[in-house]
Amino acid sequence: MKTAVTGGTGFIGSHVVKKLLEQGRQVIIVADFARLGTENLENLGIKSSDVEFRKVDLTEYCQTQTALEGIDTVFHLAAVVGNLQFLHGTETAELLTLQRNLSIDTNVFRVCQEKGVKRLLYASSCAVYPMERQYGHEAVFVESDFTASNPDGGYGWSKLMAEMQLGWMNGIEIGIARIYSAYGQNEPIDEGRAHAIGDLTRKIILDTHGEIIVYGDGTQSRDFLYASDCADAFLRLEEKATTPPIIVNIGSGKPVSIGSVAEKLVAISGKHIKIRYDSSRPTGPVSRTADITHAKNILGWNPSVSIDDGLKMIFTWAKSKLEY
C-alpha cells in the first residue's frame, strides 16, 4: 500500500512521515523541495533513502495528477501557513493565503477522486470556528457546535471551504483533523513565520539585553499540542475515516496562557530575563481550546507530552539550530 504525505517535509508532515515509517509503510513525500528541502526529515532521523520523493507544485493540476499516481492513502498537510502577521497582516496576505490554499486543496481533492484514492486525511484547523467566540476567555469548542460563518481570515476560510468540499465527496473514506496550536521540533522559528512558542523560544535563546517583549498582556491562551502527539492522532484518524467524513478536534484540551509559556521558557533557559508585555500589537484570538472528548472516544487517543516536557524539548532543539 502506497501512502502519500503532501507537505511531508514540513513541520507536522515530517512527524507524520516518521510515524508511518515506524509502521513499515511505503511513504511517498509530495512537496516543493525547492522551498523546504529535507532538513526537517534529517532532524527526525529520516534518511532520504527511506522515502520516495515527488517534487510538485500542487497549485498546478497536471503536476498534482502525476504526483498522486498509484497512491492508496493521502495525508494532505500541504498548505500556506505562518504567523499572525504573515497570514493576516494585510488584505493582500489574506487573499493570497485563501487563493493558494484553495488551489492546492481543490487539486488534491479532485485528483484523489479521479485516481481512486481509497482514504484521505486532511489537516484542517481550529481557525474554522467563528471568530466572535474566540475573543473571550475560556472559549472551548466542540465539533457539534460548529456553524459555517466568520472563520479566521483567509486561512480560516480556506480550511472551511476545504471541509465543505470533502463533505460532498463520494467513494473515499475521509478523516478531518481540526488542529489547534501544534508546536515542537521542526516548527518555524524564524522571525517572519514563527508562531507563539517558536517566536518566544527564539527571542529567549538570542537575547543579549536581559529582556524580551511578549505581545498582549500575557493572559491570552492557546491549546498547545506537541507535534508527535498530533501525528499520532492523524494515524489513528486514518483507521476511523468514513464517508461522509469524520471530523475531530486535535489538541491538548488544556488552555495555557502565553505569559505562562514565556515564564516556563525563561526558567528552562536559566537566563535572567525580564518579560515585558506590549498590548499595542495585535495578538489574534484571546482564547481557543479544543474539547477533545470526541477524539478520545472515537480514536482512543490522548496526548502524551505535557507542556512542560514539550517546552524543554523544543528549547533544546531550537538552541541547537540557533547557536551554531
Descriptive notes:
The protein has 324 residues and is α/β, with parallel strands linked by helices. 41% of the residues lie in helices and 20% in strands. The chain has a domain at 2-180 and 225-251 and 290-303: NAD(P)-binding Rossmann-like Domain (Rossmann fold, 3-Layer(aba) Sandwich). The protein has helices at 11-22, 33-36, 39-43, 61-67, 84-88, 91-115, 153-167, 196-206, 227-240, 258-269, 293-299, 307-322; strands spanning 2-6, 26-31, 52-55, 73-76, 119-125, 140-141, 173-179, 181-183, 211-215, 221-226, 246-250, 255-257, 274-278, 289-290. The strands form four sheets. It has a seven-stranded parallel beta sheet with strand order 3-2-1-4-5-7-11, with helices on both faces. It has a three-stranded mixed beta sheet with strand order 8-10-12. Helix 6 (91-115) runs parallel beside helix 7 (153-167).
Overview in brief:
The chain is α/β, with parallel strands linked by helices.
Descriptive key words:
Rossmann fold; 324 residues; alpha/beta; 41% helix; 7-stranded parallel beta sheet; globular
